[in-house]
Amino acid sequence: MTSFLRVQTLIPLALVLAAFFSWKTYSPAKHDPDFAFYQVLKNGIARHFSTIPDQQPELLIAHNALAEYLTFELKTDAMPWLPEYVIDSSRLWRVAAGVSQPMMQYYTDKEIPADKVVYLGGGYHLLPEYGWQKAIQKAQQEQDSIFLNAAHSWLNPHQIRPAWLLK
């Protein structure tokens, strides 16, 4: 019994010692999202939707950290998943990342109106989800691995929410 009590005493002590050394490993510049850049993206999105007040988005699709930030800042639902429910295509928008402006223009040209593809900076674009899906289809037809790798990276959610998140 005494060895059990010693182990119970040593575990918290070991955790305190580990915490003492681990505080130096956290670096906000490395581990936190770039909130200053997210602010720039948020401002561009807000500016775009202020020009079309009758077409406010019902849902924005963006990568995880950005989706959380946009939900908080814009008071608009944003998530890092494709919706598993039916949503009006004119009210479903995407913040696409990792695609250059000329490449995005090439794949969305003639697919959606040019004023609906907004370059936000830093390789991020705002566009309707249906336009993004058409761009992916066009890239698949052309077998453009550069575009498709960006489209299927963690920066561009491409799956619906898993069932365990729906409960």
Structure report:
The longest helix has 21 residues, at 2-22. This protein has 167 residues and is an alpha/beta fold. The protein has a 5-stranded mixed β-sheet. The N and C termini lie far apart (44 Å). Helix 3 crosses helix 4 (64-74). The mean pLDDT is 87. It has helices at residues 2-22, 28-31, 35-50, 64-74, 101-108, 129-142, 145-151, 163-166, and strands spanning 59-61, 78-79, 92-97, 118-121, 124-128. The protein has one domain (33-166). It is elongated, with a radius of gyration of 21 Å.
What is the approximate shape? elongated
Q: Within the largest sheet, what's the order of strands?
A: 2-1-3-5-4
Which range best describes the helical content: under 10%, 10-25%, 25-40%, 40-55%, 55-70% or over 70%? 40-55%
**Average pLDDT, to the nearest integer?**
87
Note the run of SSEs as H and E: HHHEHEEHEEHHH
Quaternary structure of the protein: single chain
What's the total helix number? 8
Compute the number of strand runs. 5
> How is the main sheet built?
5 strands, mixed
Please tell me the total number of domains: 1
Structure classification: alpha/beta
Distance between the termini: 44 Å
Could you name the ranges where pLDDT drops below 50 across 5 or more consecutive residues?
A: none
